[in-house]
Design goal:
Elements: H1 4-17, H2 45-53, H3 68-77, H4 82-95, H5 99-113, H6 119-134, H7 140-156, H8 162-174, H9 177-183, H10 186-199, H11 203-219, H12 227-237, H13 244-252, H14 263-275, H15 280-292, E1 315-316, H16 328-336, H17 338-348, E2 358-360, E3 367-368, E4 371-378, E5 381-382, H18 384-387, H19 391-399, H20 401-404, E6 410-416, E7 421-425, E8 432-440, E9 445-449, E10 453-454, E11 462-466, E12 471-475, E13 482-490, H21 496-499
Antiparallel strand pairs: 1-11, 2-4, 3-7, 4-5, 4-6, 6-13, 7-12, 8-11, 8-13, 9-10, 9-12
Helix pairs in contact: 3-4, 4-5, 5-6, 5-7, 6-7, 8-9, 8-10, 10-11, 10-12, 12-13, 14-15
Length: 513
Amino acid sequence: MITFSRIILILFSYFSIVKSSELCGLEPPKEGNSCGGQEFENNGIEVKWEREMYSKSLYTTDTEWPYKDSLDEADDYIAHDPDKAIQLFNNILNDVKSNRAIYARARTKQIHYVEKENVKIQKEIVDDFTHVIKDKEALKTIWASAYYQLRTIFELSKKLFFDREIDILEYLLFERTEDAFKALSVDTLVSDLIESLYIRRKFEDGAKAFEKALNLTKERNISFTSNYVNFLYGITLKEIRDRKREGNKILRNIEPEGVSQKAITIESLVDKCRKFDFKEVEIEKILKEASKLHMIVSLDQKPIEFIEGIKNQAVWSMESDKEITVHEEEISTLIEIWPSIKKEAEDLTKNITWEAGWLRSPSNWNVTGNWSEYQLFSFGNKRHHQCSRAQETCNFFRLFKASSRFFKGTIKFSVLSPGTKINSFHGPSNTVLRAYLGLSVPHGVKFQIGRKNSINLEEGKVVIFDNSFDRTLINHSPTENLLILSFDLPNPDLDLDTKAVKYAHEARSYFLF
């Protein structure tokens, strides 16, 4: 669409340089020519036109503009030839200062090489992003993007860059305050810093940082929009000997935000604390405070979606919970054919690779060992490639529509290698009941729902539980895999409209496990 400003630019170009009787089209005249083909001196309007139409103009400075073709060429190599892309970016940096080239070089390494867990490369990436952030001449689009990429790296790198993370956050908040407050979320910046200091047990530093940040926001008439910042401040003060009462007062003055609205944030904080060797009793203190403010449902249940008014219990049984007996016929049939399903699953475990269709739990989850899953149906959709290698299982579930057509459910084989531990893991919603059919269960498997419900997993038997409750699953066997079939059912109290609700597309990959 031609904007009003571009129309004015076209008219200005015409009346300024056109001497012939021919009219210009939408494209500007070639350099040095008029619309009628007569040669005139280039007055810069064509360059202005090109800058305005250039798709990467927001990432390109005046200094970088003469090198835009070289930058674009290097960008084109990022996906299929990262080594070539990095070489071209280095060549550009030999000739000109270019934050766009530094940022793109770091992203290229991040996309292609960070999975190799090469510490040297990870440090190079962090150095490049840090350089861009600390260059006050860098375009906002570049340095703000660099900050968000660094947040991802810090999240995944555990303890490797904790000093660098605090340095960057303090720099943005206290040395580049105006730019940071305009480009980034103030709540996010402050909570990231206080959280980073908290999980490193630098409680007094965290309290001072919050108070300094609070003064900066007051000077600019900015208010925190999230209670999470104050929550962090409160639990930080409670860790300082002579400020515990003050911390309690802060926490008691926080208005509850509604069940589960901050569950995923609390869960992230807890995961980080575990990575920094917090004891479970310390983590429980955090969860208790979050539960009082309804940031989570309870210590045992922390879904990000909590539907009120439906039956809410950790473990379900065909014998005692009549609501789920509607599925009794299908589950009985499943138990009858379980040896065939076991055979299909065991054949698949001979090659547990991504290429074969297996997914491995993300490295930043609270998992020790190897936990992999083979998706057959995901959120109401059949995985045709995977089902071609597990035909009997998929043929059964094709007819068991309550499970295979459930928009919030998955059906999959799940395998825990010897010694694998899954701690305090849970699903995103209390609308989902999960069932496990034991296929290969070695001696010494521990399965617990919440803190009080220990369940025996047995081969050829089905257990059903609420997927939103914390669960611990441990394969103590030193030599054998734990292999189960996992399938989901809607909570029987859901109405038809609620059953039809789907997860957002971008959230589905996070909820596969």
